[in-house]
Amino acid sequence: MEEEFIDKELFEVFKVIVDSGQKPLRIDKFLLDRLEDTSRNKIQEAAKLGNILVNDKSVKANYKVKPADTIQIVVREEPKVLELIPQNIPIEVLYEDDELIIVNKDAGLVVHPGHGNYKGTLINGLIYHFGKLPKSPELNHRPGLVHRIDKNTSGLLVIAKTETTMAHLAKQFFNRTVDRKYLALVWGDVKEDEGTIKTNLARNLKNRKIMDTYDFEGDIGKHAITNYKVIKRLNYVTLIECKLETGRTHQIRIHMKSIGHPLFNDPEYGGEKILKGQNSSNYRKFIQNCFDEIPGQALHAKSLGFEHPTRKKTVNFEAELPEGFKKILNKFEKLELK
């Protein structure tokens, strides 16, 4: 039997090709023996939501597997940390109901605890917030993280309150039906008014903390597609809007660098240096003052749209640019060219 895991952001597709000698067996029982850290209820819930496919078609939990069947199931990846500690961290909640929460994350705030960041993260704050909510045993009284944005990226995140909502949202992210738009300030005057960047993305071979681009038709990395359009040209920098078709790690940051326009003040991808502009001490001071307005790359998750898991209609949310980002734009608008 051939098995493989295909990582998809915070969830993955578990793929199984059934042995030629396999006897008929309910698919929920079949998968229970092959998936770690799961339960039959969770598998049955996935089937109910259409998250179990056999030969590319959704099946119910009582489907009997047959030899050579290709099975795929969308499952949530459980983040592994030592302990999740509730902390009273200020969080801007834009929307909340019994199923989910929409938050506007500040730049500089880590999303999930991990190595070196076990406290002071968005999830620590949400656990504290959840403690004041009705109990949610399905998620062990913890928020269900569907996607992430980088520490120094500001903007919108959706967090699930129930396992059903988590699975429903995960499927939408996997199927690329979630509408996500970002605003980014990049170095230079972007030549085209709009465009599409299509590459594969994988870890840099020399520095595992950053990503690199590879041939879209090649074997290295995963497909990544970014659509962008120019919002405002400010001579030495350009404000653009990016619409993601995929949601890979550092996707916008590495994609814009790949076409010669790193994000303003992006320390990992070369945007923290002066790349365009004037050769004067006043200009250098001007840029440093702009850098000081934000903790890292000028990137903001502006809008988020998806199908609400219980209301069964599309909901859309928007978050205003942070004050520091606004100040940078204002400074460039007032900059006198020489």
Query: How many strand units?
Result: 18
Main sheet specs: 11 strands, mixed
Number of structurally distinct domains:
3
CATH fold-level name of the largest domain: Pseudouridine synthase
Strand content: 25-35%
Element pattern in H and E: EEEHHEEEEEEHEEHEEEEEHHEEH
Named CATH architecture of the largest domain = 2-Layer Sandwich
End-to-end gap = 68 Å
Shape: globular
* Uncertain residue ranges: 1-9, 133-141
Structural class: alpha+beta
Count the DSSP helices: 7
CATH hierarchy, class of the largest domain? Alpha Beta
- CATH homologous superfamily title of the largest domain: Pseudouridine synthase
Give a structural overview.
Helices cover 20% and strands 32% of the residues. The protein has 7 helices and 18 strands. It has helices spanning 27-32, 40-48, 122-130, 163-174, 251-258, 281-291, 323-334, and strands at residues 2-8, 11-17, 25-26, 52-54, 57-58, 64-65, 70-76, 92-96, 100-105, 144-145, 154-160, 179-187, 194-203, 211-214, 222-234, 237-244, 299-307, 314-318. The strands form 3 sheets. Strands 8, 9, 10, 11, 12, 13, 14, 15, 16, 17 and 18 form an 11-stranded mixed β-sheet that branches. Strands 1-2-7-4-5 form a 5-stranded antiparallel β-sheet. Residues 1-9 and 133-141 have low confidence and may be disordered.
Structure described in brief:
The protein folds into three domains: 2-76, RNA-binding S4 domain (Structural Genomics Hypothetical 15.5 Kd Protein In mrcA-pckA Intergenic Region, Chain A); 92-175, Pseudouridine synthase (2-Layer Sandwich), CATH 3.30.2350; 181-301 and 323-334, 2-Layer Sandwich (Pseudouridine synthase).
